[in-house]
Write a structure and sequence with these properties.
The protein is α/β, with parallel strands linked by helices. About 25% of the residues lie in helices and about 40% in strands. The protein is built from 2 helices and 15 strands. The strands form 3 sheets. The protein has an 8-stranded parallel β-sheet with strand order 1-2-4-6-8-10-12-13. A hairpin with a 2-residue loop joins β14 and β15.
Length: about 200
């Protein structure tokens, strides 16, 4: 952990959290990266599954398996051997040289324009609408609802990724599923809060 981390040199499973993270080399196993800004250089390579979450993600390089990106802004380049999941509230930029050999699942606001260059996605493209979070997050006692639970789950993810052994892989997968469930629940609460505010305005 730290303010700015530059990862060079090979790794087995990589788990990292910082304000800014730059990846330049090979991760032979899985990668879990949490940061405000995440940059993957063209030389970066992840042989296992990848989960990246932050405010801004610039992804290049080679991903042998599936990859999930969750951020405000995402710039996608590189080669992906499996399915790719993108969740972004502000912008998604997919490079013309990007190769996604699996499916692409895109979760973005309805009014966000996303251009997918022809031939980039070899599988299917699925788009799911989400709400923009700014000014609409459901709150409890003045604090963002579920934020504490989210931090606990992310902490568990980091701990699970840091442990060795195949026996912990189901735990890692379950923790990632829990994180997705928390985000989905938060989205439903946002929807309900907006709908309630609209009803109050009409009344």
């Amino acid at each position: 952990d730290g303010d700015e981390v530059d990862f060079s040199g090979g790794f087995e499973d990589l788990h990292a959290a910082a304000n800014t993270i730059t990846m330049n080399d090979t991760v032979r196993g899985d990668a879990l990266v949490l940061a405000q800004t995440i940059i993957l250089a063209p030389s970066a390579r992840v042989n296992g599954s990848a989960y990246l979450a932050g405010s801004s993600i610039i992804a290049d390089g080679t991903f042998e398996k599936g990859a999930t990106f969750n951020a405000g802004t995402i710039a996608l380049k590189g080669t992906y051997g499996g399915d790719v999941t993108l969740r972004a509230e502000e912008s998604v930029d997919i490079g013309t040289d990007t190769v996604i050999r699996g499916n692409l699942q895109l979760s973005v606001p309805d009014d966000l324009s996303v251009v997918i260059p022809e031939g980039v996605v070899r599988g299917k493209v699925e788009r799911k609408p989400i709400l923009r979070p700014e000014g609409r997050r459901a709150q409890l006692g003045g604090f963002p609802l579920l934020s504490f639970l989210t931090k606990l789950i992310l902490g568990g993810l980091l701990a699970a990724w840091g442990a060795d052994g195949l026996l912990l892989r189901p735990l890692r997968q379950r923790l990632m599923a829990l994180h997705r469930e928390v985000r989905d629940t938060e989205q439903r609460l946002i929807d309900a809060t907006v709908a309630s505010a609209q009803v109050e305005t009409v009344d």
